[in-house]
Amino acid sequence: MTDTVSAKKRSEVMSRVGSKDTKPELLIRKGLHARGFRYRLHVKDLPGKPDMVFPRYDSVIQVNGCFWHGHDCPRCRMPSSNTEYWNKKVARNMERDASNRRSLRDQGWRVLTIWECALTGKWKLELSQVIDLAAAWLLSTNSIFEIKGKVFHPENRD
Question: In the predicted model, is pLDDT for residue 63 greater than 80?
Fold first, then answer.
């Protein structure tokens, strides 16, 4: 499948993709705040500047875009043009994510990753369910956890 816009336009569109205060991140922040959880945002002193830091619970939450962080789900489809560039870029992001998780764990932080597919698209969960899972994890002693979209089966793919 070829791109429907010019390379210049695609570059312009991709350059506007933000890394902070994304819609999925704002949904999670609002839901957890409403439940009484207080957090700090994008703490620069921690590896990867986590989206939300919960010092009271020794926990951090990252809300990751499936494409940018190489999630194994239907939302993560590589572009058909400039594939070498995109494969390298996403692979570097995945390596950095793994390194940041290790460093956070070594510093005593618990890490929750909430994937974009859990919040948007046809495989999304109910927002209240995602907030319930995140809140339960914050109150638990589990060190690493991920919240993903509904189970994907290749035979159901459009």
Answer: yes
pTM beyond 0.90, yes or no: no
Q: How far apart are CA 48 and CA 24, in angstroms?
A: 18
Q: Within a 10 A sphere around the Cβ of 55, how many other Cβ atoms?
A: 12
Q: Rounded distance, CA 158 to CA 12, Å?
A: 29
Please write down the long-range contacts of 45-54, taking CB distance under 8 Å and 24 or more positions apart: 46/104, 46/107, 46/109, 47/99, 47/100, 47/103, 47/104, 47/107, 48/96, 48/97, 48/100, 48/103, 48/104, 50/104, 50/111, 51/20, 51/25, 52/25, 52/28, 54/138
Structure confidence by residue, pLDDT tens digits, 97-126: 999 999 999 999 999 999 999 999 989 999
Helix (H) or strand (E) holding 99: helix 83-106
